[in-house]
Amino acid sequence: MAMHANPYSGELIRAIRRAARRHGCEITLADTGDSVSEEAAVIRALRADRVDGVLLVPAAGDEAVINGLVRMGVPTVLVDRMAGRNDVDQVGSENIQAVCALVRHLAGLRHRKIGFISGEEDMATYEERALGYRLGLGRSGIRWTSQLVACGQSTPGGAAAATAKLLDSWPSPTALVVASEAMMIGVQYEAHRLGIRIGRDLAIVGYGDMEWAGQVTPAVTTMAQPIEEIGRKAVELLLARITDPERRPESVRLAPRFIHRRSCGC
């Protein structure tokens, strides 16, 4: 398995290992550091070891490595970060309706200036979450405006800068939807640095449930990804591909779970 670093990678790895153990399979783990070049090197090394298949959390902007695996007929499943293609098995969380629900929750609390901290622009996952944000606004009768959207670059530092930009602009948001766990760290930091009371001065909701999300004050309202189910399904898809290389590729999206806490102000 080729894995990039992310806030819940340990949990996902454990889920995959449990699923593999149930099927009598062994897992070889490699960290790509979220780098396309490192990912290519890792895949070459795994291929040299004659692995039966690859579970890949693709690096941002990666197409060449995936194209090569598909072209060579290597049993492959993309995990977590799904790509906009139909020639490879994939499993991850549902994004569009989940983020739409977060926006509608905030709108139901009478927020009309709902900002969005987006992730890397060349990743299908974040494009889907941005679409969910716009869909939620539309279904709530709120007009989308670019002034309420800032890219957090999928990092805590990028999200802190994006939060500062939004809060210093007009119209200043009364609520924020944050597109990933890593970026939520930066949003929390910047809000505290500015003396903004989360849940009172600014409502915040996010996507992904890091361990600390339920322990900070106020605890974070979020959509929690079904990590155990993703790990289990990834292994099942890979074994099915190894058994039947000609089967039609599947894209499986698993619904996250809404966890209501106090950061949204209700």
From TrEMBL:
<dbReference type="GO" id="GO:0003700">
    <property type="term" value="F:DNA-binding transcription factor activity"/>
</dbReference>
<keyword id="KW-0238">DNA-binding</keyword>
<dbReference type="InterPro" id="IPR046335">
    <property type="entry name" value="LacI/GalR-like_sensor"/>
</dbReference>
<dbReference type="GO" id="GO:0000976">
    <property type="term" value="F:transcription cis-regulatory region binding"/>
</dbReference>
<protein>
    <submittedName>
        <fullName>LacI family transcriptional regulator</fullName>
    </submittedName>
</protein>
<keyword id="KW-0678">Repressor</keyword>
<keyword id="KW-0804">Transcription</keyword>
<dbReference type="InterPro" id="IPR028082">
    <property type="entry name" value="Peripla_BP_I"/>
</dbReference>
<dbReference type="Pfam" id="PF13377">
    <property type="entry name" value="Peripla_BP_3"/>
</dbReference>
<feature type="domain" description="Transcriptional regulator LacI/GalR-like sensor">
    <location>
        <begin position="103"/>
        <end position="264"/>
    </location>
</feature>
<keyword id="KW-0805">Transcription regulation</keyword>
